[in-house]
Amino acid sequence: MTGKTGDARQASLDLIRTLLAIADGGSPYPEERERARERAERLMVRLAIDEAGVRMSKEEAAAPEQREFHFDAPYILDQQGLVFRIASVFACRGVRYPSGRMVVVGFASDLAMVAALAGSLVPAMRLEMDAMGGSASRKKAFAMAYAATVKSRLQDFYAGALREAEQEGTGSALVLADRSVAVDEAMVQMFPGLRAGRARQVRDYAGWMAGSAAGERADISLGRKVEEREARAIGG
After folding, report:
1. Segment 227-232 long-range contacts (CB within 8 Å, at least 24 positions apart)
2. What is the pTM of this model?
3. Domain limits of the chain?
């Protein structure tokens, strides 16, 4: 990373920390705190998008890689389904196994995003399902709606950050398109003959509505999670 690029990155991280400090009580006004948090998270996604272009030019990051996830019973399919949805937002692809193992393919920076979100959203969904109770059919509907809602919210947020990057002429749209194509090609090579699984059916309307509501209140604070990882990396 060049000196100018490193300085710009550090300036972005400093601004993000300042905004998060405001969001965490640095302002007495709720509206200002909320605006600061949203701006911090959007900046963090922008930082990741812009860095994609840098990484794509490096030989060591020229190909997608794999990352494994393991899930314990109960709700194995539901947990895998949530991570599958999260991964798709970041141009990653997943392969699920009945044993609870899941392999996600993508570029390193994108896989880090997926892991950060899955690390908090999967346990949160399990807690919500336990608290709701009810039949297996209701819990399945809940989990499907939760995953669909979280995916939609992430797509909206991520797309907004991408539009900002495009408007500033970073070329990020082309970079991300290239990454998606590269991941699809890697999937064919890594998993030849892979077939799509059967679509799961929703049969409980109340479970679906409860899952949608839970997905709307789920914490998708991507910027916060990536910021915490950055702080650990630099000794913050």
Report:
1. 227/13, 227/16, 227/17, 227/20, 227/40, 227/44, 229/112, 229/116, 230/13
2. 0.71
3. 3-233
